[in-house]
């Protein structure tokens, strides 16, 4: 491609070191799409005769056909997907030598990558939507199931399991906004920026942008070939998404343990032990949690690469895609398997409630009941707290206390309070907007559905 200036061929070792074919070959279809649009524009503007543009486009279609039929083996000596396709095109159709008019691989690689990434992000959006759907349907299945809610990993207050699933709906829904942001960030067409400064030839950048489905051409040619923000935006989405996944998986791993036992995982999503016959391990959840570090690592990889790069294109940028692909593949796989697994998680309310019965998670309910009787909250908190301490010393639960015993410690207690001292009443009565009350959860489900 650049032999005019050189006396010697690039060394084989250098070819192997500098090639990006192993990474960018998967974008061949996007690359051809970009080239077709470019050729159409060259013909339309008269930069090359329209009939020649048509021949180039037919040639490009022939190359695509060869690739799809598995008849085209690209060569490392041609560095990347772009030069491999163009070289083959020119073999088939000598007019292919005109295709690179007013184009550099710098705007070409940016265009190709944006097209490819757009397809992948749109697919992720569908997968994420499915995950959100599953969470809503789990919330419906489990609205009336009560589990302990935790802060500091200590039993805090009883909650509806449906409410728990909806908490993840909120988190993943924010991830959807971040994904949409990344999609918006790539929605400008780099083609026509050239190597860095545009072209002396009268290219029509509006035309190529429109042909390739972008909202508009990029506004500054220097920024166009230097910019990888649309990738960092994706990586940020992916990292936060995986942190959510990891925290969710961690809960489910805990709840699946013998000590908790609130949930039952489908057999098909667990593995056994080669030594211990009793084991049913939550490997899928552990692996999803375990992949989180890689995803954050890929973001750091690119950020560190970009730091300190001078305006504009630098070859360092060729390293932008390796981690991106790994991240996209992993995030997509995690979304799919998680949605499948979650849709089949069952709850064991008996065990969840058994865990609650021994604790004092109704202490806040007692304090709030006293508040309704006119006791200042701090005093109510103190009274309920003292009684908890008294019970803990004797190894008894609230449910073991008679009304008389209650009244000995807290004279304001009356028989009506005994009626609210159950986990179910506790959840039912937390009927504030966004709270865990069954009625609220049902409202939240309806709201979530309308947002889907
Ligand atoms: N293989 C290169 C890449 O993927 C293509 C761009 C090369 N541009 C250059 N000025 N050498 O980034």
How would you describe this structure to a colleague?
With 452 residues, the protein is mainly α. It contains 19 helices and six strands. It has helices spanning 12-18, 21-24, 28-44, 50-68, 81-92, 105-141, 161-185, 205-211, 221-226, 229-255, 283-306, 322-342, 349-358, 363-372, 377-394, 403-409, 415-418, 423-429, 438-451; strands at residues 146-151, 154-160, 188-189, 216-217, 263-264, 346-347. Strand 1 and strand 2 (154-160) form a beta hairpin. The chain starts with 11 loop residues before the first helix and ends with a helix. The relative contact order is 0.10. The mean pLDDT is 96. Arginine binds next to helix 6.
Brief description of this entry?
With 452 residues, this protein is mainly α. The protein contains 19 helices and six strands.
> Average pLDDT value?
96
Structural class designation: mainly alpha
Q: Tally of extended strands?
A: 6
Largest sheet: 2 strands, antiparallel
Alpha plus pi helix count: 19
* Low-pLDDT residue spans: none
Order of strands across the main sheet = 1-2
Proportion of residues in extended strands: under 5%
Percent of residues in helical segments? 55-70%
N-to-C series of helices and strands: HHHHHHEEHEHEHHEHHEHHHHHHH
Distance between the termini: 50 Å
Based on CA inertia axes, which overall geometry fits? Answer: elongated
Compute the gyration radius: what is it?
31 Å
Bound molecules: arginine
Q: What attributes characterize this protein structure?
A:
binds arginine, two-stranded antiparallel ribbon, mainly alpha, elongated, two-stranded parallel sheet, 452 residues
